[in-house]
Structures are given as structure tokens and as C-alpha cells.
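S.,

Sequence below, as promised.
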Amino acid sequence: MKRSEINAIMAEAEAFMAAFGFVLPPFAYWTPDDMLARKDAARAIIDGRMGWDITDYGQGRYAEMGLFLFTLRNGRLADLQRGGGMCYAEKLLISKKNQLSPMHRHYLKAEDIINRGGATLAVELYGSAPDGSFDGDAGGRVMCDGIARDFAPGDVLRLAPGESVTLMPGDWHAFWGEGGDVLIGEVSTVNDDETDNWFREPIGRFAAIEEDVAPTHLLVSDYARWL
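The prediction came back faster than expected:
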């Protein structure tokens, strides 16, 4: 992805979130120079990979396959491992009309996926094989706003604004905006996007960046190189 495209997506996403009354935390508005100057004080932000995250999954087709994310907070894996402390994370996502977030699962993370506003959020579901791999013949059960719901392989949940689904580790899922763009909330256990995203197809989690202009804000995938 070109950096100019990423900058434009950031500006569009900020306006879309604001339309629903969501305001990002102060560090969202730091420039790369601000982030560099404050990197010692902001160590929890950097280590927790909080902030802007825009991906085309390395496929170069963002409008068709991609996702906007902003990690608002992220806990500590050490706390999760010992069973107490900051064991949670929260994100805002934007799934554009017919923009696929491809089939994947998590081995550690459980997550609530919440339609916070906009169009319908479509979520396609499959279960796992005994070894955790994708099984096109496996269904399962999820919770939708506290109500258990069985699903057959390939069933598509359609979540209206205010509705949600709870996905457990092993629930294979893909999603997209249906009928328009969707603002999505994600509340989960500690998030590790570097090691806990397992895709059905051999694709990457992060975009490769072509630096055609200077970044407005750093992506979480920029932190290691820029800071």
C-alpha cells in the first residue's frame, strides 16, 4: 500500500468514527516526531501495539480485502498467563461495503465483535478440526448478545447496529460490511496480532508500505522500524 493511501484512509476513518460519536485517545493524533520524542513515556503504547492499523493482508486490493483498525487499549500477556491483571483489549474497526476480512481464527483470543453503527455486519462462520485447522464440514455454537446460537458450516450471521457475536478460540470467521460501511467494536482478551492470527489461505496480516509521502501518523507495524 502507498503511504498516501494510508494517510487518506486515516482521515476518512476519523471522520466516520466521529459521525457515531467516537473520539480517539490523545496519542492517536501524535505525529511521527511526537511519537519519537515521547517513546520512553509511551512505552506501554508501543509495546502493546496500540494505535493505527491498516491492512490489505499483503494482497494489494484494499477495497476488496482489507480492514481498518485502531487498538485503543491492550493488556499484558504476562497478566493473562498468571490469571489476573489487565487481561483485556479493545479496538475500533471499520469494514467497508463488501470489503472482506478473510477467513481466520485465533488460538488464544476470545472476542466480542459488535456492530457499533452503520450498515449490516456479515460474519461467516466455520468450526475447527480436532487439531484446530479449518474444517469445511464443521459447525459450532456462538453467543449472540447472551443467547446461544448454533451454526452450520458456512452460515452467515447478519448483525444490525447494536448486535454482537462472541467468538471463542477455534471459531473460524470472515466478515464484511453488507449494504454499506460498518463501525465495529472489538472487546477481547489480550491481543497479539503478530502471532495469534491464523488464516485459512497463505496471506499476511500486515501491509507492505511504499513510502511515497511522509506518514501522518505511524501504524503499529511502523513502530519497530521508526522508533
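The mean pLDDT is 96.

Coffee later?
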